[in-house]
From TrEMBL, chain A:
Protein name: Ferredoxin
Cofactor: [3Fe-4S] cluster
Keyword field contains Zinc-finger: no
Record key words, sorted: 3Fe-4S, Electron transport, Iron, Iron-sulfur, Metal-binding, Transport
A Pfam short name: Fer4_15
SUPFAM superfamilies in the record: 4Fe-4S ferredoxins (SSF54862)
Lineage, top ranks: Bacteria, Bacillati, Actinomycetota, Actinomycetes, Kitasatosporales
Source domain of life: Bacteria
Any GO molecular function: metal ion binding
TrEMBL record, chain B:
Protein name from the UniProt record: Pyridine nucleotide-disulfide oxidoreductase
Keywords attached to this entry: FAD, Flavoprotein, Oxidoreductase
One GO CC term on file: cytoplasm
Source organism (scientific name): Streptomyces aurantiogriseus
Location of the Reductase C-terminal domain: 311-384
GO molecular function: oxidoreductase activity, acting on NAD(P)H
Pfam family for this entry, one: Pyr_redox_2
Origin superkingdom: Bacteria
Matching InterPro entries: FAD-oxidoreductase/Apoptosis, FAD/NAD-bd_sf, FAD/NAD-binding_dom, FAD/NAD-linked_Rdtase_dimer_sf, Reductase_C
Length: 64, 389
């Protein structure tokens, strides 16, 4: 599945990093960056958690 | 458990219904919301939306297709008006009755107001759009209340070229929340820009020309924004038998009664991590609580206490403020990194002998994320903040 990030909505909360460290990081201003765009079954649950907790609705997980 | 009703279609309610589906609930899920819109995000209302940097369509929490995929019985634009706890049914303003097996209350809060007509408040999309239309260069905005909401709105109005006056009853804005020292530093940001911040003044009413203070003085204004806190939306639960007292009172599992949960701004629950009951008006808490309550409702035998480290942020002028923990009632503040006067610092908060919170302004993300762990672990102050001990 593909992870989409709308960085301009990101409020730098870091919740996604807490939920899915292998997929998200933050730059020096705290804005989220994607470490992986494609995630396999092992990480999908973590990313779903990140989607759910992101306070800016900036993350989406899309089926391909 | 077949029929689940969620009342309140915003951040917390949405998180609840999404989690119900994610956890495999296939029965009916009814989502009731009195606003006519699909769930949208509130924090941008006092930031990007007010500044006209982002439009309403980008505030939707989920695209319409994602909402449709949840297969909800969606009742928007209709308020819940009553709850029959023994009969297990929610009454709606349109006269319909929704029987339920499980119920999640997510009705949030509404702004406190002042006597008198014509002032703005800032809670809904409509509120924000109305205020935005009235802000223009040279117009005089009086903001009553220098809390987070008032400070954010003042900052945006200033940026739009309005003349801004902020009236605050406390001697130091936000002192009860973040401590006097930090509050002083944050409020200096207003004064640096020429925003007229007047502390220790109490507004008694909104008048035709502006606002009246307790000493009788009238402060004239083109527009008035009242940002003096909020009241939980629990009126409709008054005779329900639920315990209501500054929010719906819940246990550590977020349960207000058998099969009834409350989440988000409206919920007052016992947080075992801090050993105290709290009601939190933070965006991330709404989502986390919605998720936790949905899980507890579906699997009562495996239910977990909700014991998070609260998090919030606020954007004021060029400052991004971030905090973890429960700062209210703290007994000591220590600056552990950076410099208060440069408005680039990290402050730690002590309650009892523990680290109860951390607040950062202008610090790199890792600096504050580390403290989340410290607070979650219930770390002793003397070990975590050696310089202060
Ligand atoms: C302008 C603004 C800026 C903010 N900025 C920040 C920020 O920077 N950082 C941060 O952490 N938090 C911020 N917040 C707080 C955050 O938005 C809230 O914590 C969050 O919206 C709470 O979500 P909720 O779903 O619990 O409640 P709400 O978002 O209040 O939603 C409750 C919903 O229930 C509806 N409702 C009420 N009564 C009924 C009824 N009887 N029947 C049916 N529906 C009903 C309401 O109309 C509303 O749509 C901000 C809030 C505002 C207003
Ligand atoms: S959770 Fe959302 S807002 Fe927070 S850092 Fe990640 S993308 Fe940004």
């Amino acid at each position: 599945m593909k992870v989409e990030l709308e960085a301009d909505k990101c409020v730098a909360s870091g919740q996604c990093v807490v939920a899915a460290m292998q997929v998200f990081d933050q730059d020096d201003d705290g804005i989220a960056i994607l470490l992986e765009e494609q995630v396999g079954p092992g990480l999908v649950d973590d990313v779903r958690e990140a989607v759910a907790v992101c306070p800016a609705a900036a993350i989406r997980l899309v089926e391909q | 458990m077949n029929r689940i009703v969620v009342v309140g279609a915003s951040a917390a309610g949405l998180a609840a219904v999404e989690t119900l589906r994610r956890e495999g609930h296939t029965g009916t899920v009814t989502l009731v919301g009195d606003e006519p819109y699909l769930p949208y995000d509130r924090p941008p209302l006092s930031k990007q939306l007010l500044a006209a940097e982002r439009e309403a369509d980008r505030l939707q929490l989920r695209p319409a297709g994602d909402i449709a995929a949840l297969d909800l019985d969606l009742r928007l634009g209709v308020a819940a008006t009553g709850l029959d706890l023994t009969g297990r049914a929610v009454r709606l303003a349109d006269g319909s009755e929704l029987p339920y097996d499980g119920l999640i209350l997510a009705t949030g809060v509404r702004p406190r107001r002042l006597p008198g007509e014509g002032a703005h408040v800032l809670r809904t999309l409509n509120d924000a759009l109305t205020l935005r239309e009235r802000l223009a260069p040279g117009r005089h905005l009086v903001v009553v209340g220098a809390g987070f909401l008032g400070a954010e709105a003042a900052a945006v109005a200033w940026r739009l070229g309005a003349r801004v006056t902020v009236l605050e009853p406390a001697a130091v804005p936000l002192a009860h929340a973040v401590g006097a020292e930090v509050g002083r530093v944050l409020s200096q940001a207003h004064r640096d820009r020429g925003v007229d911040l007047r502390c220790g003044v109490t507004v008694t009413e909104v008048t035709e020309d502006g606002v009246r203070l307790s000493d009788g003085e009238v402060v004239e204004a083109d527009e008035v924004l009242v940002a003096i806190g909020s009241l939980p939306n629990t009126d409709w639960l008054a005779d329900s038998g639920l315990t209501v007292g500054d929010g719906v009172v819940c246990d550590a599992y977020l349960a207000a009664a058998q099969g009834v949960y409350a989440v988000g701004d409206v919920a007052r629950w016992y947080n075992p991590l801090f050993g105290t009951s709290m009601r939190i008006e933070h965006r991330t808490n709404a989502a986390e609580q919605g998720m936790a309550a949905a899980r507890n409702l579906l699997a009562p035998e495996g239910r977990k206490p909700f014991a998070p480290v609260p998090y919030f942020w606020s954007d004021q002028y060029d400052m991004k403020i971030q905090a973890y923990g429960f700062l209210r009632g703290h007994e000591e503040v220590a600056v552990v990194e950076g410099d208060l006067d440069e408005r680039r610092f990290l402050a730690a908060y002590r309650t009892g002998d523990r680290v109860s919170g951390a607040l950062a302004v202008g610090m790199p993300p890792r600096a504050i994320r580390r403290w989340r762990q410290t607070i979650a672990a219930g770390a002793a102050w003397e070990e975590a903040v050696p310089a202060a001990a």
